[in-house]
Write a structure and sequence with these properties.
With about 100 residues, chain A is an alpha+beta fold. Chain A contains five helices and three strands; from the N terminus they run ααβααββα. Chain A has one domain: Arc Repressor Mutant, subunit A, CATH 1.10.10. A three-stranded antiparallel β-sheet of chain A has the order 1-3-2. Chain B is elongated. Classes of the chains: A alpha+beta (about 100), B mainly alpha (about 200).
């Protein structure tokens, strides 16, 4: 039986995880695109990403794109699994 | 951790909403520019075919080359999110789709058979048939892709397909100029609509 995940259930982190789930496979989304999409400030987004990274749900990679620094975020297999479990638990509550 | 049914429903709705928003944002990355760009190519190509039919082959060869290069350019201009999400799959999809379209065209092309055989008198497909076929191939892709990207693309694909068939069956002498106005025009209007409404 699936269980709710308190880390993921926090509203902002739920939206971050949902946005990353919408990507194909192991695709990444850059920090600024994610912030713009979810209408989050850099500070707020950064703090929640750190929590998700510590839980092992996302992977954060810093790289250079066209000589500009760029932070890329993607879901880990563990993150994908936990999110799917969380969604299953939510559906179970609804019956 | 316990939550109410209402909260669970709200969370699921929020998840669905964010997933749809993300997919639309990715699709939007280059869709509007591509639609306007290909709409202009259709307007020029079909108008040229109507008024200068002898040069149509060279015209379309040039326009398709420009179209492929332009599509590659717009693809490269997409945000890192979109680029990484698709890994060039969209470009590969269109190349594969048209490779198959040309394969089907070759397979369906009537071949003259040895004299005396009844269906040896079939003529090759005419230009209008080929144009209608190659116009509806990308529209088929829009209709199918719309199942994931949103109903907008389903309606656009269906609309241009219907307009193509109307022109093909009822306006044969004006088919190309009809396609320039309605087909090219639909793509341009759709691109402008996406640009305005999805930002």
């Amino acid at each position: 039986m699936a269980e709710l995940n308190a880390t993921i259930h926090q509203p902002v982190r739920l939206r971050i995880m949902a946005a990353l789930m919408a990507l194909n496979g192991d695709a990444q989304m850059d920090f600024s695109s994610l912030g713009k999409l979810l209408k989050l400030t850099d500070g707020n987004l950064g703090a929640h990403l750190q929590t998700l990274e510590q839980a092992g749900y996302i992977k954060i990679e810093k790289m250079f794109v066209n000589r500009k620094p760029c932070t890329q975020i993607s879901l880990t297999p563990k993150g994908r699994y936990e999110f799917e479990e969380h969604v299953a638990a939510l559906k179970q509550i609804l019956g | 951790m316990n939550i109410s049914k209402e909260e669970a429903r709200e969370s699921l709705d929020e998840i669905q909403s964010v997933i749809e928003k993300t997919r639309k944002a990715i699709a939007h990355g280059a869709a509007s520019s591509m639609l306007i760009f290909w709409g202009l190519i259709w307007v020029v190509g079909y108008s040229g075919t109507q008024f200068f039919p002898q040069s149509a082959g060279y015209l379309w060869l040039g326009l398709i080359t420009v179209g492929i290069l332009g599509s590659w350019f717009f693809g490269m201009r997409q945000g890192p999110a979109s680029r990484s999400a698709n890994h060039g799959r969209i470009g590969a999809f269109w190349l594969i789709l048209f490779a198959y379209a040309f394969l089907w065209l070759m397979l369906l092309w009537p071949q003259p058979l040895p004299a005396g055989m009844e269906w040896g008198h079939y003529q090759p497909l005419n230009d209008r048939q080929i144009s209608a076929f190659l116009t509806t191939v990308p529209m088929f892709a829009y209709v199918v892709g719309g199942m994931w990207l949103g109903r907008f693309f389903i309606w656009l694909g269906a609309l241009v397909t219907v307009l193509t068939l109307v022109g093909y069956f009822y306006l044969p002498s004006l088919f190309y100029v009809w396609m320039a106005i309605t087909g090219g025009g639909s793509l341009i209007v759709a691109g402008l609509y996406i640009r305005k409404s999805w930002r």
